[in-house]
Amino acid sequence: MRYEGKVYRPWPEADSILIQTTLGCSNNQCTFCNMFSDKRFKIRELEDIFSDIEQARKIHAHVESIFLIDGNVMAVRTEFLLAILNKITETFPEIQNIALYAGFNDFRRKTVAELKQMRAAGLTMAYAGLESGDPIVLDNIKKAMKPEHAIEGMAMAKEAGIKVLASFIFGLGGRHRSKEHIKATTDILNIMQPEEIAPMAIAIQPGTELEQQVLRGEFLMPSPLQVLEEEKYLLENLADFDCYYWGDHGNNISPMRGMLPQARVPFKDRIEHEIATNPVTKQDIIQTFSW
After folding, report:
1. What kind and span of H or E run contains 159?
2. Where are the beta strands (DSSP E) in the chain?
3. Cβ contact 126:161 at 8 Å
4. In what order do the strands lie in the sheet with 17-20?
5. Count of CB atoms within 10 A of residue 123's CB?
6. pLDDT tens sequence across 99-151
C-alpha cells in the first residue's frame, strides 16, 4: 500500500486499515490546521486505489474496519466512491465498518439518494469537523461553512443512515469569545444530534495562520480555566440524546470518554473537580501540543 505525504486518521480509527483515496483537503485554508500543507487536493487514480485494496488483502487475513484518507473524501463524486466501496466489500467480505473524512458541506453537495447508495454500499461512518457553532468563529478560522450548512449536512447524513462523528475545539473562540463559542457550539449540537462527538482543546500548529495571529497578538489564547469551563458548560447544557463522547484527546485537560447522557453526571463532576483542584487552572494560557 502506498501513501503520499503526511497521513492522518482519527484516534478512534487506530485499528483500521488506511486506504489513501484523496491527497490533501478540498478546503485546506482553515487557520488552525496544517495537516495537509504539504500537498494540493487531488483524487488518486481508481486503479491505484484498487491495487492498494488488493495489497491490503494479501497482507491482512482478517479486516473488519477500513478508513479512507485524506481529508474530505466525501467530496469525491458519488460514482467514484461507490466503485471504491464495492471493491472493499467484495475484497473483504468480513468488513464491518468503512469510514472517511467529510465536510458537512460535502453532504450538502450530494443528494440524499446518493448518500443512501453509499450507505448501502458499505459506508458506515463519516468524521466531520464542526469546530464551532459560532458564525463569527467559523468566519475567523476560514472554515468556509455556516452553522446552517452543518445542520443541513447532518440532517442529510441522518436520513441516509450514515453515522457522523462531529469534532470541535474547546478554546477556538480565544480568550474574548469563549462564552459565545461554547454556547453556540452546544446549541448547534443539540439541533444536529450527531451519533458521536469529539471535543479537543485548542493547540497551535506550527506554520499555521493561527500561529501568526497569536504571535501578532491578534488571537489571545484562552486560559486552562476557560477551557474547563467550556467543557463544563457543554456537559451541563447538552440535550439528552444518545451520543458517544470521545473526550479523551491527548490535549484535553481531563481526558474521558463514554456514552451520553448516561455519563453526563460523572463527567461533569470530574470537570468540576478539575476546576476546583487542578493547579493548571492558575496558569494564564493553556499549554497544549501540536498534533
Report:
1. helix 147-160
2. 17-20, 22-23, 42-43, 65-69, 97-102, 125-131, 163-170, 196-201, 243-247, 256-260
3. no
4. 17-20, 65-69, 97-102, 125-131, 163-170, 196-201, 243-247, 256-260
5. 27
6. 999 999 999 999 999 999 999 999 999 999 999 999 999 999 999 999 999 99
Q: Which residue has the cell 457550539?
A: 185
88, three cell numbers: 472493499
- pTM recorded for the entire structure: 0.95
Contacts 24+ apart (CB under 8 A), 181-184: 181/132, 181/133, 181/134, 181/137, 181/230, 182/230, 182/233, 182/234, 183/134, 183/233, 183/237, 184/132, 184/133, 184/134, 184/135, 184/137, 184/147
Please give the grid coordinates belonging to residue 59.
497482507
Q: pLDDT by residue (tens digit) across 197-212?
A: 999 999 999 999 999 9
What are the grid coordinates assigned to 87, written together? 471493491
Whether 150 and 104 have beta carbons less than 8 Å apart is answered as yes
Question: How many angstroms separate the CA atoms of 217 and 196, rounded?
Answer: 35
Return d(Cα 70, Cα 208) in angstroms, integer: 19
At 17, the amino acid letter reads I
What are the φ and ψ backbone dihedral angles of 221, each rounded to 5 degrees? -65, 145
Q: Which helix (H) or strand (E) holds 211?
A: helix 209-215
Query: Which three cell numbers, joined as nine digits, stand for 132?
Result: 464551532
Q: Which amino acid is at 43?
A: I
Largest CA distance in the chain: 57
- Measuring CA to CA, which residue among 116, 52, 118 is closest to residue 86? 118
Short-list 132, 154, 152, 151, CA closest to 142:
132
